[in-house]
Design a protein that fits this description.
The protein is α+β, with helices and mostly antiparallel strands and 583 residues long. 51% of the residues lie in helices and 10% in strands. The protein is globular and about 75 Å long.
Length: 583
């Protein structure tokens, strides 16, 4: 979404990154920057750096980084326009109405509106005769009409163009419906509804906007559940089902369930803090989203093998986000929906009350199906338990659980603690070696985290990073550099694009801090560019010459010769330096 340059420059001038970050993070002055505990991962030693000079943030622990807009987007789980709107509100500025490009028919806004109208269409179809099977399915699962209405459940007709016809009649274009993920184009160019003959579950974000759908097939067919595709409207990694309701719950915890029906059943039973991930394993972004509303989370995944594996993965992700993690252990039922139907709400409330800590759960999982009267199995349990104890940060916690393991295995607590301490020291040494390896390996330390952005020529990329830093810190040097080389000569397309943007801004006499990238790069790209700026490259004319020589030398190696553009740029630079005229 394009905004006038004048508006963005003024907004960023009024939105000092240190002041904005300080709304969320306690910062202390360290040298030329500011340091605090990263809000995006759990840490005890500050590694979150905020630069007031260059207006960027970077975490040396988790790699998060960017400008003030990127920070607001990440911390508040907002898209770019909404982050700009929030900053504008804080700065006391109005967003120009013309900024929306296509006005009311801006593709993303229209896609959101299409999702809203699609939800209404599906809900209406559920009430009609053709929705009888879906209606029967939902009622048969024990949902009340009030619950069906509350969650906006619906039915997608068993027709190729039912929704397509209804929404195009309302004025939506096929491009808008494709962007919303509501229709599909096949190889022959035919367009048809994505969801057909399915019970529909609208996915609503924290702002109350319908952003996508999950659909359960009514007849035979695969997949059983179908979700909206990733788009500018829908990002499944950054949203949770029913969070729009759960965020307002009075409960001091959030329940994390596996699927739509479990969440709805829990809400209907009065557990209104239940949420679920969206057709994928729990992500770091979703864990962070939970941590914004609650400090404790209760995992309520299915009791089968797959559910137990998902629980193990979720524990680490949730703990990394700084959450107090508890785990429900169910017997006699596969999932929360079945348990509540069989045993009632009060029994489930007891399960929540007696939920195990993550340590207790993992020790119980290690002990499961082992016969502790058998020496070999007892040793296997002790080894597994020692591994869990060694990973506990609290000495008191290790003491308590070591005592329990000692009682279960008839081995002294001191022996258990001694083994746990030996394992803990081994893990510390292993982590230290890994850190040292990364520090000593310049290639791995500079590589972007996203595989698609990885450097193909690290030697050239190191010089490209340094040259980009030079140009952002010294406008005079940048002017000279831009006459000799362009981003097209860079081995890294990401760094080349960034370099060209900085040079263009310099020629216009505009500021060149981290904010110049926010509109042009993705979250991961912004994070990497912030990491580049956080590195200390030499910023002198001689150093810039060296960087250019390296880049051009690597260009010759890879291409076999200098590009015509490089030759012309070098010739023009030489002509100006020697004071020659165009003749």
């Amino acid at each position: 979404m394009a905004y006038p340059r004048e508006f963005m420059d003024e907004l960023l001038a009024r939105s000092d990154i240190v002041s904005v970050v300080s709304r969320y993070v306690s910062l202390s002055r360290r040298g030329s920057g500011n340091l605090g505990l990263c809000p995006f991962h759990n840490e005890k030693t500050p590694s979150f750096h905020v630069s007031s000079d260059k207006q960027f943030f970077h975490c040396f622990g988790c790699g998060a980084g960017g400008d003030v807009i990127s920070f607001v987007m990440k911390i508040e789980n907002l898209d770019f326009p909404d982050a700009v709107a929030k900053l504008a509100e804080w700065a006391g500025m109005e967003i120009p109405q013309s900024d929306y490009g296509a006005g009311e028919r801006n593709l993303r806004r229209r896609a959101e509106e299409a999702c809203r109208d699609a939800a209404r269409f599906f809900h209406e179809k559920l009430r009609e005769d053709k929705g009888a099977d879906a209606r029967g399915y939902l009622l048969g699962r024990g949902l009340s009409p009030a619950t069906i209405t509350r969650f906006g459940l619906g039915y997608s007709p068993n027709a190729w163009t039912g929704l397509l016809d209804a929404l195009t009649a309302k004025g939506y274009t096929k491009a808008e419906l494709l962007e919303a993920g509501l229709i599909i184009t096949n190889e022959k160019g035919r367009v048809y509804d994505r969801f057909r003959d399915r019970a529909m579950f609208p996915i609503i974000n924290v702002r109350g906007t319908v952003i996508g759908f999950g659909g359960r097939i009514m007849g035979n067919g695969e997949p059983k559940y179908l979700n909206s595709p990733e788009s500018s409207v829908f990002n499944k990694r950054k949203n949770l089902y029913a969070l729009n309701i759960a965020k307002s719950s009075r409960a001091d915890y959030m329940i994390l369930a596996e699927g739509y029906m479990d969440v709805i059943a829990l809400h209907q039973a009065g557990f209104d803090s239940a949420v679920a991930s969206l057709g994928t394993a729990l992500t770091d972004e979703q864990a962070h989203l939970i941590s914004k509303y609650k400090s404790r989370v209760v995992i309520a995944y299915d009791s089968d093998k797959a559910g137990r594996s998902a629980t193990e993965r979720a524990i680490d992700i949730l703990k990394k986000a700084g959450l107090d993690v508890r785990v429900i252990v169910m017997t006699g039922a596969k999932d929360p929906d079945e348990f509540i139907k069989k045993f009632g709400r009060e029994k489930y409330a007891k399960l929540i009350e007696n939920a195990l800590s993550s340590a207790e759960y993992r020790l119980a999982a290690a002990r499961q199906e082992l016969d502790l009267s058998d020496d070999k199995q007892r040793v296997a349990y002790i080894k597994s338990a020692v591994g869990q104890l060694a990973r506990m940060q609290s000495t008191i916690e290790r003491e308590i659980y070591a005592g329990r393991v000692a009682q279960e295995t008839n081995v002294t607590r001191d022996a258990i603690l001694q083994e746990a301490e030996r394992e803990r020291k081994r893990l510390i040494r292993e982590k230290k070696r890994e850190t040292e390896r990364k520090i000593l390996d310049p290639v791995s330390s500079i590589m972007p985290r996203e595989r698609s952005e990885r450097y193909t020529n690290p030697h050239s990329a190191i010089a490209e990073e340094a040259l980009l830093t030079v140009c952002m810190s010294d406008t005079k040097l940048c002017s000279g550099v831009s006459e000799r080389i362009s981003g097209s000569m860079f081995s890294s397309p990401l760094l080349g694009r960034a370099f060209d943007i900085v040079c263009a801004r310099t020629r216009e006499g505009a500021e060149t801090d981290m904010s110049v990238f926010s509109e042009n790069f993705s979250e991961s790209e912004n994070a990497h560019l912030a990491a580049v700026l956080a590195r200390n490259a030499e910023k002198s004319a001689d150093a810039a010459d060296d960087y250019i020589d390296i880049i051009q030398g690597e260009n010759i190696k890879s291409e076999g010769k200098l590009s015509d553009e490089a030759i012309l740029a070098a010739a023009e630079y030489y002509r100006k330096k020697k004071g020659l005229n165009n003749g």
